[in-house]
Specification:
single chain, 147 residues, mainly alpha, 8 helices, 0% strand
Length: 147
């Protein structure tokens, strides 16, 4: 079980309170698919992903980015039991979708970049530490079924 300080909880809740899910979700997933093109193989049914412009204009990618971000709400609401919260999602991604678990980390890194750019100077060292701790726990939980 992960120990969360009151400050960490406050920081993470603050990030989510001001988040534009549609914008950040789309930008993070697009960035992941563009910067790490091998991750595109899991999105074959999403249409043309030929180049950065088509990825950024793809409504299915935008929708899934929003879905991913809303999926983090579950972790936010269950910070003391993230691993159990994501057990079914971990199983889905490992057994049915066969997603390489390292892709969760890549997407988390892209999400951090997008949120840091959005928050600017408000993305302090303490904010980054709390945010990355949160995402690390989520990534670990999503990869749990693989171990």
């Amino acid at each position: 079980m992960v120990e969360w300080t009151d400050d960490e909880r406050s920081i993470i809740n603050g990030i989510f309170a001001n988040l534009d899910y549609d914008e950040v979700g789309r930008k993070a997933l697009c960035r992941c698919l563009i910067v790490y093109p091998w991750t595109q193989r899991y999105f074959g049914g999403f249409g043309n992903l030929y180049n950065a412009q088509t990825i950024m204009a793809n409504p299915l990618i935008a929708k899934h980015g929003t879905t991913i971000l809303h999926g983090l709400d579950r972790a936010l609401k269950n910070m003391d039991n993230i691993k159990e919260t994501y057990s079914e999602l971990s199983m889905l991604h490992s057994e049915k979708l066969h997603v390489d678990p390292d892709n969760f980390r890549l997407l988390a890194d892209c999400m951090t970049v997008v949120i840091a750019a959005k928050l600017g100077s408000a993305f302090s060292i303490d904010t980054q530490a709390a945010w990355q701790k949160f995402l690390s726990v989520v990534v670990s939980a999503l990869g749990r079924q693989y171990h």
